[in-house]
From TrEMBL:
<dbReference type="Pfam" id="PF00501">
    <property type="entry name" value="AMP-binding"/>
</dbReference>
<keyword id="KW-0436">Ligase</keyword>
<dbReference type="GO" id="GO:0005759">
    <property type="term" value="C:mitochondrial matrix"/>
</dbReference>
<protein>
    <recommendedName>
        <fullName>medium-chain acyl-CoA ligase</fullName>
        <ecNumber>6.2.1.2</ecNumber>
    </recommendedName>
</protein>
<comment type="similarity">
    <text>Belongs to the ATP-dependent AMP-binding enzyme family.</text>
</comment>
<feature type="domain" description="AMP-dependent synthetase/ligase">
    <location>
        <begin position="32"/>
        <end position="147"/>
    </location>
</feature>
<dbReference type="InterPro" id="IPR042099">
    <property type="entry name" value="ANL_N_sf"/>
</dbReference>
<dbReference type="GO" id="GO:0031956">
    <property type="term" value="F:medium-chain fatty acid-CoA ligase activity"/>
</dbReference>
<dbReference type="InterPro" id="IPR000873">
    <property type="entry name" value="AMP-dep_synth/lig_dom"/>
</dbReference>
<dbReference type="GO" id="GO:0004321">
    <property type="term" value="F:fatty-acyl-CoA synthase activity"/>
</dbReference>
<feature type="transmembrane region" description="Helical">
    <location>
        <begin position="94"/>
        <end position="115"/>
    </location>
</feature>
<dbReference type="InterPro" id="IPR051087">
    <property type="entry name" value="Mitochondrial_ACSM"/>
</dbReference>
<dbReference type="GO" id="GO:0006633">
    <property type="term" value="P:fatty acid biosynthetic process"/>
</dbReference>
<dbReference type="GO" id="GO:0006637">
    <property type="term" value="P:acyl-CoA metabolic process"/>
</dbReference>
<keyword id="KW-0067">ATP-binding</keyword>
<keyword id="KW-0472">Membrane</keyword>
<dbReference type="GO" id="GO:0005524">
    <property type="term" value="F:ATP binding"/>
</dbReference>
Length: 184
């Protein structure tokens, strides 16, 4: 695939392997070296009340590496493992997505307005290795109860384990950085 070029360009070669996490790291390095303006954030998140979070590429690179470390150590995520995420589109949602890119985990998006029965069906069918969820005004406690119930009923069944290793969940919102790093 190294000989394939993108239409309209003369010199850009399509890499044989590509991971967007490498792009984040490259831009973070450019910020560090002063070759990129850090006043243009990599992530700029504003909630409905006007509170905002701005992260530079260096922030996203560091935080996503730490989150990937949690996924790969505490949750034992390996390439191809499914990581189900039941979160609103808060900054940590994007960190988990970048962490999945780094670990090779498959990011399984779950709608936060899904019903409990449908969530149970999707967990049982998709067999995620890890579920990341938190309760908030947008994620109902009934959904966390479903996650807990599935884990209790299947976690210790050695041959039919749906949740093979770990569930990262909390009933507190908003999440802070210690949420992801307390498991290291």
């Amino acid at each position: 695939m190294a000989d394939v070029v993108i239409r309209g360009t003369n010199d850009f070669q399509v890499p044989e392997y590509f991971n967007f996490a490498d792009v984040i790291d490259e831009w973070a390095q450019k910020e560090k070296e002063g070759k990129r303006q850090s006043d243009h954030p990599a992530l700029w998140w504003i909630d409905g009340a006007g509170s905002e979070v701005k992260w530079s590429y260096q922030d996203v690179a560091m935080k996503s590496k730490r989150t990937a470390n949690v996924l790969s150590t505490a949750a034992d995520i390996k390439p191809g493992d499914r990581v189900m995420v039941i979160l609103p589109r808060i900054p940590e949602y994007w960190l988990i997505q970048a962490a999945c890119l780094r670990t090779g985990g498959v990011f399984v998006i779950m709608a936060i307005n899904i019903g409990p029965k449908e969530l149970q069906r999707r967990i049982l069918r998709s067999k995620p290795v890890c579920v990341v969820a938190c309760s908030c005004d947008q994620v109902d406690n009934d959904l966390l109860d479903v996650v807990d119930q599935v884990v209790i009923n299947t976690h210790f069944n050695d041959t039919k384990a749906v949740m093979q290793t770990y569930v990262i969940s909390t009933r507190e919102f908003p999440l802070d950085s210690s949420f992801f790093y307390k498991f290291i």
